[in-house]
Specification:
Layout lengths: L16 H9 L4 H28 L5 H34 L3
Helix pairs in contact: 2-3
Length: 99
């Protein structure tokens, strides 16, 4: 049985190659970066759902591929939720500041 390593999955917006070039040109806005990251989370969720359907219909025989896709989607969702929580905490902290 051949076991393949699991590659580290990073959203393209966080890999640094494109973002460093954009930073020199003025970069993307925070809203664009957040929107792109949420789109990637959505794509991962849809990919995992599609793989589960293919596995259940017999198109995919390897349960490992399905499990890996589901775990990637789960981790990306957990990261998105944690980022959202930190953004909310920061907003609440700023709103409590006295001007």
């Amino acid at each position: 049985m051949n076991i393949l390593p699991v590659p580290m999955v990073l959203p393209q917006s966080l890999t640094g190659t494109d973002s460093q070039n954009k930073a020199a040109e003025g970069g993307k806005s925070f809203g664009e970066v957040l929107s792109n990251a949420l789109e990637e989370v959505n794509r991962a969720q849809l990919k995992a759902d599609g793989m589960v359907k293919k596995f259940l219909t017999g198109e995919i025989q390897d349960i490992h591929q399905v499990t890996i896709a589901m775990e990637e989607a789960k981790l990306m969702m957990q990261l998105a939720v944690e980022v959202r929580n930190k953004i909310i905490e920061a907003y609440q902290e700023i709103s409590r500041m006295q001007v």
